[in-house]
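Annex B. Sample input.
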Amino acid sequence: MKMFTKLIAIAVSALAFSGAASAQEAPDALVKRISSEVLDTAKSDKDIQSGNNSRIMQLVEQKILPYVDFERMTQLAAGRFWRQATPEQQKQLIAEFRSLLVYTYSGALSQVRDQKIEFKPLRAAPTDTEVEVNSQVISSRGGEPIQLSYRLEKKADGWKLYDVNVLGAWLVEAYKGTFANEINKGGIDGLIKALSDKNKQLAARAAGKK
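Annex B, continued. Sample output.
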């Protein structure tokens, strides 16, 4: 799970979106353009390369978070248990899962060095509201390319990312098992507490890097 989480982090950190992007822009064109922008920033920014947590978090907050559908990601990860949660519990789950992914994304940005992304042709009709953008990450140091796929949904305010696949494993599906285990042990509140505890650990670790 640790290796999978690291690969997921690299994948999603490479994918960010600009608020200036048009809602009519094709999803694959959007992903290509902004992926390049963020990778270039991560490679050239000395603060990011040195692991400056404040700068990394700033980049994540500005470029990635506004265009990720955390509510849908959380709902899918919770699966059938989502309907058992109260509106307040659902709100807390979204907030804690969002924080967990933020720390995951941030941790990957400082690891970006010589990677580049190659995209495959988009197979989708102009009327599609859900698409899958396929790509691969290649390092100049060699090794097998990392296969990546992104699921996006067209919302009223543009395309939003809601799942990522790394080497055949979908992020939401991976967390679904973890969520179910915590809920079976302590209910919805048990899952919320587990996520909260994990985020506190990650926050303390991040604070030590400032």
